Amino acid sequence: MNVQFPVRAGSPGGLRDEIAAHLTYSVGKNPAAATISDWRFAVTAAIRDRVIAPWFETTHKVYGADRKRVYYLSMEFLIGRLLEDAVANLGLEEDVRSALAELGQDFSVIAMDEPDAALGNGGLGRLAACFLDSMSTVGVPAYGYGIRYEHGLFRQRFRKGWQVEEAEDWLRQSHPWEFERREARQHIGFGGQVRHIGRNVAVWEPADSVVAQGYDTPVPGWRARWANTLRLWSAKPENLFDLAAFNQGDFMRAAEPAILAETISRVLYPDDSTDRGRELRLKQEYFFTAASVQDLVRRFAQTQSDFHKLPEKVAIQMNDTHPAIAVAEMTRLLIDERGLEFDPAFDIVSKTLNYTNHTLLPEALERWPYDLMAGVLPRHLEIIHLIDDRHYKAYPMRPESTRIIDHGEIRMGNLAFIGSNRVNGVSALHTGLMRETVFNDLQSLHPSKIVNQTNGVTQRRWLYTCNRPLRELITDAIGEAWITDLTALKELENHADDAGFLGRFGAAKRANKLNLIEYLSGIGGPTLDPNAIFDIQIKRIHEYKRQLLNVLEAAALWNAIRRDPGADWAPRVKIFGGKAAPGYGRAKLIIKLINDIARTINEDPAMRGRLQVAFLPNYNVTLAEKLIPAADLSEQISTAGMEASGTGNMKFAMNGALTIGTLDGANVEIAEAVGDENIFIFGLTAGEVAERRTGGYAPGDAIAASPALAEVVEQIASGVFSPDDPQRFADIANDLRHHDWYMVAADFDAYYARQRDVDAAWKNQTDWRRRAVINCANMGRFSSDHTIRGYARDIWNIDPEF
Fold this sequence. Notes:
- The protein is of the alpha/beta class.
- It folds into three domains: 1-65 and 81-115, no CATH class; 66-80 and 116-454 and 788-796, 3-Layer(aba) Sandwich (Rossmann fold); 465-782, 3-Layer(aba) Sandwich (Rossmann fold), CATH 3.40.50.
- It has 32 helices and 22 strands.
- The radius of gyration is 27 Å and the shape is globular.
């Protein structure tokens, strides 16, 4: 059957009339009374209308051909603002600007009114968002599944330099991109007991349950040839209100069902340092995973009755370890609700699920206390026992490290590995380290499971939309092919020695710096010098990412400039951005140290025009879209062997920043792509880090051998940067001297020397720009389009439409 879906007219005049109509009939305002938010809602409604037809057409095409679908399960989807992205993908930028200008409005102002969707924290969530864009662009039938967080992570403020967490309120206004799907409701149980009827039948009787309510957002690809769906789950109570308790005057108890249910989808990553926090975290992960698995199984059953065909029609990707309970949940559904025996059920599950590992850090592999799992998910614990026993019988000589249940804990990384068809690393280095370290023993039992698909980013968001000056320069030089085939940027190498092109390239970078300065001025931020090196590190605050190394170098540079103020110092602005988890005390102390050192440097008159340090609060996608195009130097300085991939490194290089970094994560592949002469690599390798950790590394000796570092450590310890509390940073100084697990002292001198190489390179602006062009030209392999095609070929066994 040929189904026709209405398509909106494409002229600016037609769009103008649609916006005006939505302002009147959807928002209920006349132009004279409309606020910027009212105009945003009207514009969004008009643009959303134009996404509906390709969205419906995609769904109809997939159902009509009974196509295999990919289901991407992720705790985070850091989608940011959607209006500009949708307008760009639809090819309506100039039409929207013209239409709004006729209505007396500025599209740039309206677009900036949209709040960032608080659905993620960092690279994990942004990767998921890039993957959705690319799956829609290359035509992979897909659903993204996650949680519709009411408050997300948190809004970050600084109070006297300390991080303060406040509730994010992005849903205070309605979210105009989403559609509530009342028919997409799943009932999710917790606790209770399991009744066994005979040998093969088990009935789980949960003590508590909530409703997972689905909300769908269409995700159009480039030029809307294909549009997939992001379905987010919001927790609702089974019973909205205890009327009996209310009538008895117990008003708080009357509201308890709603409060307890909605807590599950209220906050991203609740603090799990307490028993209650751990229980909430486990419930949250099960809530979204179970709702997603139940939803996709229901969809499969609409067209299929033989569940042995599930792997032919469904591929599930678990984005990190958070959704690992999917292994047990899908097995439970097939056994308890579809009547399969355990062995064939688990065979189906292990051919359908796939697992992306994003980190080698033990805390990220998640281990749940046995008693907690027994109390929250008793049936799943039984199934995990069955899976563990089956694996033991298949490999009776297996090492203890491969067990799922171990010393009173459930090892979710092992569950994800054993229950998956493919396990992928996110950079070549990380994949190799997975095989050699955390999954070494499992890899020996399953040698074909681990594969590599290096992360990528969508150039449509991270160059085309966020960096208009550079995009126009590139398109003028080489055409538009790069927008859907990033390898086309290679042609820019033909312009790397063209003085005129390099001049325009420098002008584009300066325009982006001025744009950042204007943006910061509008939000009360610091005033920056556009002539300085914009040296930027924007990441989640974690010790392995080594913001501490960066700020120690800033302090050492301050000391050097004070000693020799007349030297020809390259002007530099060091910019930090990132949040520390509420329960991560050391990371929060590092934020305070950065702010205290920044205050000291910025108050020193001798530093004017030479050195400035700025920590920008509440880092999010919108701020990243301003910072990355403006960056001259990209800080990718994690301890080698600890950053799985990184995607910020790709975004910065794509936008013409040079990288200073260790041979860690995707930095290794970026260095291979751009050439050693076009990147500033320093420090220990992953192998050398491992050798030092096992060979008696003495950080005190490294500090003693470095006068610049010894001076800064003593300043930190003695309170030079914290005169109001001289002992504030004593623990940081002590750890640097005696522990230093993250090799800050070991790498300091190499880092400091490389920064001076940066200073020298900056003085030759022609050569700096040539290097920047070479970086941009060689980012083709780091497009998420390329990554998704690799997943489709090597993991999902699916052919993209385009």
